[in-house]
Amino acid sequence: MSIYTHKFLVVIAILTMTSDLSIEYSFPDGFMFGASTAAYQIEGAWNEDGKGESIWDRLVHSRPESVADGSNGDIACDSYHKYKEDVALIKGLNAKFYRFSISWTRIAPTGEMHKLNPKGIEYYNRLINEVLANNIEPMVTMYHWDLPQYLQDLGGWTNSIMANYFEEYAKVLFSNFGDRVKWWITINEPMQTCRGYSMQMYAPYLKLDKTGYYLAGHTQLLAHSKAYHLYNEMFRDKQKGKISISINANMYLSKNGSSKIDQDAAERANQFELGWFAHPIFKGDYPPVMRQWVDRKNKEIGRAWSTLPKFTEEEIKLIHGSADFFALNHYTSWHASHGKDLNPYCNSDAEYIGSFDDETWMGSILFWLKVVPEGLHKLLVWIKNEYNNPPLIITENGFVDDGRINDLDRIHYIKTYLNATLQAIHEDKCNIIGYIYWTLLDNFEWLDGYGYHFGIVSVDFNDSKRPRTPKASYHFFKSVIDTKKLDGQ
Ligand code: GBE
């Protein structure tokens, strides 16, 4: 990019910044700004240096038609070779945090920890050291959806033994990297993992309906808590890090604001999505409304047991309290009203109808992503009230477009969502300590392929060198980080 284009983008970014919001609030000192990526979406090098096959490698190679453009992550952003450039981009933002994930099959090709791959461990050592050398803190996600295929062949997350495999994997990560990594996310968005077992939305691309859905969630909660307790028992004293799990949640707002049955439907939807994973960790066991409704639904159809498995008393205790902070991934909001929905994205057990029929909600090129910053504000207050105001990091929040460099809609999204965050901090005293944008680089957007861009940095996928170009939103985000304000002062 020429120096002129660069200056032009900065001017545009600053003009946009000052136009539609006049915001007084500042981000508190020490507020953690960063950007996020995930191994399968950026690394490429899918079979290099001893890496084993993951469920994503298997899916994209065996069923390429399942990806919108028939593409895959074989090369992606080639970050396996270009990680230094990625780190330099985080550095250029003046961001303090880089959140990335580790590919389990690079560490151990089959997922079994007695057969480690030293070259995989070396790669993450190089990456972590590069991050630290640039005065950036790594936040490491252990699992962002790329399960070893060998473990999938054992049933994957529907087999409760996976919790033990995950604990062993976590032990290897703490032992090798925990001297330098102080922020850990065990699992990214457990609910989306479950959709890979129920409705073919992700790998392993299974259609096991609610049975696979709730089983996969149950095992992930157990896996997470085992990793957490292992850290407490073996590593915490020495390594002094923090651990959580990134829970994704839309905000469900009552469609007819004052209608009690719609309010209840929206509350149920929130409990069935965010509460599914947050309630066991921050309050203990599944949300009561989820237990009651799923059990009743199963009884009604004559199933002998509930598809929502039960924890033992001991498991409830192990899971309860197993997070040092609340890690929230949030993109958008829905309306919810009472009723039976055929929309597969809505959990039919919760009996709500989801919709986006609000003309004031700006859209995007993906049907599910509407710009509803007030939804984030309400969600942050909901979490504060529901879980006793835990320290919270927004570990993902991002906007999708067609990949333009002058991405004014993305600037608008980031600005209004950060404004909602500031309101929650200053007006509602929500204990929010960080914001990590999804994502640093345009990348392989799972089954949507390469046509949908969330990055603040563009990547030219037609050029084998995969050159990176910061977008206008990159410069805007940097100015927020530099000034701690949204108005560019
Ligand atoms: C994140 O998930 C992922 O962590 C990241 O890897 C991904 O690139 C990013 O999203 C962008 O998609 O009913 O609203 O769920 C289906 C965010 C589409 C959660 C969108 C899939 C939200 C899960 C409709 N959703 N996404 S629905």
What's this, in brief?
By secondary structure, this protein is of the alpha/beta class. Helices cover 44% and strands 13% of the residues. It has helices at 3-19, 39-42, 55-62, 79-92, 104-107, 118-133, 149-153, 162-177, 190-198, 209-239, 260-282, 288-300, 313-319, 373-387, 408-426, 472-483, and strands at 32-36, 97-101, 137-143, 183-188, 242-248, 251-254, 326-329, 333-338, 352-355, 392-396, 432-438, 457-459, 468-470.
Explained architecture:
- The protein is of the alpha/beta class.
- It has 16 helices and 13 strands.
- It has helices at residues 3-19, 39-42, 55-62, 79-92, 104-107, 118-133, 149-153, 162-177, 190-198, 209-239, 260-282, 288-300, 313-319, 373-387, 408-426, 472-483, and strands spanning 32-36, 97-101, 137-143, 183-188, 242-248, 251-254, 326-329, 333-338, 352-355, 392-396, 432-438, 457-459, 468-470.
- The strands form three sheets. The protein has an eight-stranded parallel β-barrel with strand order 1-2-3-4-5-7-10-11, surrounded by five helices.
- Strand 12 and strand 13 form a beta hairpin.
- Helix 1 packs across helix 16 (472-483) and helix 4 (79-92) packs parallel to helix 6 (118-133).
- The model has no long low-confidence stretch (mean pLDDT 95).
- The structure holds ligand GBE.
- The site of ligand GBE has 14 residues, from loops.
